[in-house]
User: What shape does this take?
Amino acid sequence: MTYCVGLKINEGLVFMSDTLTNAGVDNINRNRKMKNWSVRNYRSIVLLTSGNLATSQAAISTINEQIDQSELEDRNILKAPSMFKVAKIVGKILREITSEYTIEGQKSDNQYHSTFILGGQIKGSEPKLFLIYPEGNFIEASDDQPFFQIGETKYGKPIIVRAYDKGLSFGEAIKLLLVSFDSTIKANVSVGLPIDLCTLKGSSFKISNQVRIDQDNKYFKNISENWGSSLKKAIKSLPTFQEDNCS
Amino acid sequence: MTYCVGLKINEGLVFMSDTLTNAGVDNINRNRKMKNWSVRNYRSIVLLTSGNLATSQAAISTINEQIDQSELEDRNILKAPSMFKVAKIVGKILREITSEYTIEGQKSDNQYHSTFILGGQIKGSEPKLFLIYPEGNFIEASDDQPFFQIGETKYGKPIIVRAYDKGLSFGEAIKLLLVSFDSTIKANVSVGLPIDLCTLKGSSFKISNQVRIDQDNKYFKNISENWGSSLKKAIKSLPTFQEDNCS
Assistant: This one.
C-alpha cells in the first residue's frame, strides 16, 4: 500500500509520501512516490502516486518523454499555460495507460489503477492542488477540502481533520503530517519509512525541504516517541466518564 | 457501515457500537448492533454485530430460538459450559446462515457476510473476548491484542493503539472509546450517533453502564468539542519542524 498527502496552506503546498510498495506480503520494496519538475522562476510541479506501480511509473516516464519530445501546450507539462492544463495532460496520460492494460491485457480487478495528487504553481497564478482519479478526471483543493490523501488514508485522516488550519506555517504543517504518517505506520504494516517530504512556497517556484526521513531521523523519532505521551495527556485532560453521565 | 469495539481491561470488558445501517447511501436507518444475555449471578454475554444486517438479525433470532428450544450445551448459549463453547455456537449459527444464502441465494459479492465481537463471563472462568469471522471461526483477545474492532475500523484505531492501557478504569476506557468513535464519526458519514455502550465488570455477571449516547448527551458533546482543542494542544507541544531537522 501507500500513504501520500498533499496539503494547501496560506503559505503554499506541502507534500508527503511513504516509500513502501508491495506485490503480495512477500514481495516488499521501496520506491519513491514523489516526483517533481521545475522551471526556474517560472513553474514548479509535484506529483505523488499511489496504486499500481507499473502504471504510476509508466505515467511518469510518459510525462518525461512528452517534456523531451513535444513543444505542444497540451502535451508538455512544462509548456502548459495553467495548472489546470497540467492536470489535464497528466490525467490523459494516466487514462491512456490504464485503458491500454485494461482493454488489451489480462482481466484483473482494478489492478492497473493508480491515483495521483498533483500540485504546483505557474507564474501569474496561485498554487493549485489536484486529486487525479484512475479515470483521468480530477478535482481541485479548496477551502472546504484543503488536503488530499491517497492510498491507506483512513488511519491518518482524523488528526488532519481536527488539527488543520490554513494559517499553519510550513514547519507546523510538516509536523502535523508527520504525526498523521506516524499514526498510519503504527497501525498498518503496508505503509512504511522512509518518508519523502517537499514543500512549495507560494511564488518561489522552487521545491524546498526536499528531505527523505528514515528511521534514524532524530526529529521524526522525537515526534513519534513524544506523540504517544502527548496523546495520553490530551485524553487525560478530558473528564472521565461517570455513570451519572448516562442521563 | 458500522463501527463496533470490544475492549478488555483488568477490570472487565467494555463494548461500544454505533447504530447507523445503510443499504446504499439513500437508504439509511438506525439499528441496535449490541445485544446481551444474562443469567443472574452466573453468566453475562454481549454480542456486537457488523456486516449484512439480515444475516446479523437472523443469527440473533436463531441464538434466541435455541435458548428457548434447546437444553443442549452445544446449542444453547445460556447452557454452554464455557465462553469458548458459546463462541462455537454463535460461530456455527453465523456460518450456517451465511452459507444458506450464499449457496441457495443469488450470487452476490460478500453481501451476506457478518462479523461479530462476542464477550462475556461464565462463573468459574475469566471474562473472555472473541472476534468471530463470517466463516464462523474465531480468535480470542489476549495481552497482545486486547481489543477488537469491526466495521469501519481504521479511523479510530490509532488513538486506541496509542492510549490503551490494561490498567484503565471503566470510566477512562469509555472515554477513550468515545474519542475513537468521535474521530470515526467526524471522518466518515457511514458511522453515526447514537452510540450504544455497556460494560461487564469481572465476576459481577451483570451488564452495567447500559447507555445510548445521542447527540444531546452532554458528556459526549463535551468530549467531542474539547478533543479538538486538546489534540491541537498536543500537536503544539511537539517541536516544530525546522529545515535543519532534515539532516
